[in-house]
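Predict the assembly for these two chains.
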Amino acid sequence: MFTPIALEAKNLVKYFPTGHQGLLGRPTKELKAVDGVSFVLRQGETLGIVGESGCGKSTLARLITRLLDATSGEVILDGKDITSIKGRELRAVRQKLQMIFQDPYSSLNPRHSVGQIISGPLEVQGIIPDGGVKKRVQEMMELVGLNPEHYNRYPHEFSGGQRQRIGIARSLILNPSIIIADEPVSALDVSIQAQILNLLEKLQQELGLSFVFIAHDLSVVRHIADQVAVMYLGKIVEMGPSADVYASALHPYTTALLSAVPVPNPKMRGASGRIRLEGDVPSPVDPPSGCRFRTRCWKATDLCALEEPALADAGGGHLVACHHPMEASERAGKPHSDR
Amino acid sequence: MGTAMSLDEDLITTSQQVSVESKSPRELAIARFQRDRLAKWALFVIVFYLVVAIFAPLICSLLGISPYALDGKALNDFGLPKGSFGGISGAHWLGVEPGTGRDILARLIYGARISMLVGFLATLVTTAIGIIVGVVSGYKRGMVDAVIGRITDLTLAFPSLLLMIALTRPIIQRLESFGIPEGNTSRIVYIILILGVFGWVYVARIVRGQTLSLREREFVEAARASGAGTWRIVFKELMPNLWAPVIVTVTLAIPGYVATESTLSFLGLGMLPPTASWGAMLGDSVRYYRADPTYLFIPGIALIVLVLAFNVVGDAVRDALDPKGDRQNIA
């Protein structure tokens, strides 16, 4: 039951300075991209993080991989906080913590051959594997389903799915234990998405990887994740084992997201009402008081504006941050489908 | 669509596996360049000019001509060359200079030394400064970029030719007081210096713009995520993407600086009189353009051919370095 912890985030916060500033003046406002996110990633498991555009998912990925420096909070890897380490120590951590990027077009240097791209991390880390760099790269290419003969080819000669495989090979060449995947399939065709997801699952089993898998598509996360965290405006609003979250969502936002997932069987469509959220996501520069979702929530009361709901365990490791979580009866029926 | 394409690609590769695997990126670029016939000719022209410039004394002594020897017998009573087309003859293949009777071919060959030296060195200096400033400005952004940007604007706003003329004497004197040999050496140093001071902005602007757009690409983040430092990102990730525009600027800059040297010499601020340079020849020939138009055309054509050759080679190199270039039709 108690699988060892691979990675832990504690109260991660990232504010970006914004607004007008004089030549030497301080920025007037802060964009609260990630505002107090905590989670635990267990070894060999996948944590799916979902949320709509602009909720801070990608920022969170970059905080974990140290591409951005956190305003506050901790990221604990092997019992050590990695948010403030530098230089050689940071470089060593980067070996264990690699990232897969969203856009297979901009994530590969157009002037580098596939061989150069995949071997890049080895070169940076100064590692010469047994049997030579080329052999190792070609093994990696084979592992991710690329033809090793394409070593000297350039990225533009590949399709989107193949390019994403190149990116995956690059992230795996250092033998990392944790992979942060920032929407790795959202730029791909649906048929290719399935191929890449299956590849990631296969790699996870073969190499014992732990994944933080970021997506805006719930059905993609459902396919791959053991744990799911739902983000809204820089905060996690609901988190738990994915079976629980999908079967019995507690936060109204999660319920709304789930109701938007297309149902393949037309006969089933009428049964679950679709909840349409009104309006846009509020600005993260000036988020609503109390619960951040209250401006779009049909269950909001005065309490929601006054007091911010804490992320609390609702049983079985299923956490929710809501004053009025969904009841079982509400989920079964469709009282809000007309909104 | 994607799968269909990848299937096709796999089929193609299996049939051509050996040839595809054996070509490295550099070999491909060279092969692409070699397919461009015009570019090969243009490269030949540039190499020819360079060889001539480097071996000028040897070539002139082999031909039995000298850029300084006066030949009064080749001139008529008005001081103009005897015979048609500026006095072209067996002894003087490109004619003689009006007034002095010096051999134009010899002066052209010696002039190539000065012109090419200034052109190449000035380009080297401006491109080096431009790339460094441009990359730093684009990569660091913020305050650094703002300061460099204002300096760039200021430099561009300066009336550079006017300043070059005005500063000639004081700066040359200063250079000589630092121990740089008097005469042509100090003048060449001055020209390269002043062209460097004003010329880097063009390269820097192009490089900065490219860097700004490149640094936002995810491959830069990917490099950082694998532990790469600023130096590696700049030199290994960004630079290869900057070569194409830089090469084009360079090939335009070299003939541009050759022309600027000519302008300064034409204005009498370049090389000192007995020394031959194309600009000085052009400046001198303007006085005789009615009586002896050939004298004007010869250095002019030499300059145009060089400029053209550089442009053609520049285009071909850029195309050859483009990884999107065709690889199937390369034998």
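Residues 150 and 156 of chain B are 10 Å apart (CA to CA). Chain B has one domain: 40-321.
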